[in-house]
Design goal:
3 helices, 190 residues, Porin, mainly beta
């Protein structure tokens, strides 16, 4: 956790230096999100039972950047606040953008997810005696697409699936808690 926070801190220290580069844009983003938290039970590598613990719509807002590596390849780091139902996250996606054709791009990359209220997930799962059973930090893989409507305005859709298991309580080798998010929003570069 400390290494991740340190990396985020360093990223924002170097942000003014990146802005001086010609191929860097800074902007804001926001939109709607559908967050689905799933719980599961497995044994001997087989899924015995799983189901949606919570499926809620919400919103996301944040800051974004765009660093041009080449004409077709860009990197788009973001810092987002996501709220869906009674769950909140701070997320740091680092997306590689590849322009398929002019203005249309595909994106893929890792996403770090910090739960701002992991206790709410515990309540959803009725884990009354499990003090530290839900991890507040997760790692996702995300992919999506976007289209530049105007020079500084794009619409995009993205899906992120959590790779890490947030459940670390009793029997954690048999239980799992993972979230997936579907985002639809706009990006406005200043």
């Amino acid at each position: 956790m400390k290494k991740v926070l340190f990396t985020v801190f360093l990223s924002f220290l170097f942000l003014p230096g990146l802005q001086a580069q010609e191929d860097f844009k800074f902007g804001v983003t926001g939109g709607v999100v559908n967050s689905n938290v799933r719980g599961g039970l497995s044994a001997f590598g087989f899924n015995i039972a799983s189901g949606s613990v919570q499926n809620k719509f919400g919103f996301f807002v944040g800051a974004t950047g765009d660093v041009g590596i080449s004409e077709k390849l860009h990197v788009q780091p973001e810092l987002l606040y996501v709220n869906a139902g009674n769950l909140g996250y701070v997320q740091l996606p680092i997306m590689a953008k590849y322009y398929i054709i002019e203005k249309l791009y595909a994106q893929v990359g890792p996403q770090f997810s910090f739960s701002t209220n992991a206790d709410e997930i515990k309540d959803l799962l009725s884990l009354v005696d499990a003090e530290d059973s839900i991890k507040s930090v997760g790692f996702d893989i995300a992919f999506g697409a976007g289209y530049e409507v105007l020079e500084n305005l794009a619409v995009q859709a993205r899906f992120a699936r959590e790779i890490t298991n947030r459940y670390s309580g009793p029997g954690n080798s048999f239980g799992s808690v993972r979230a997936s998010n579907f985002y639809v929003g706009v990006v406005f570069f200043l």
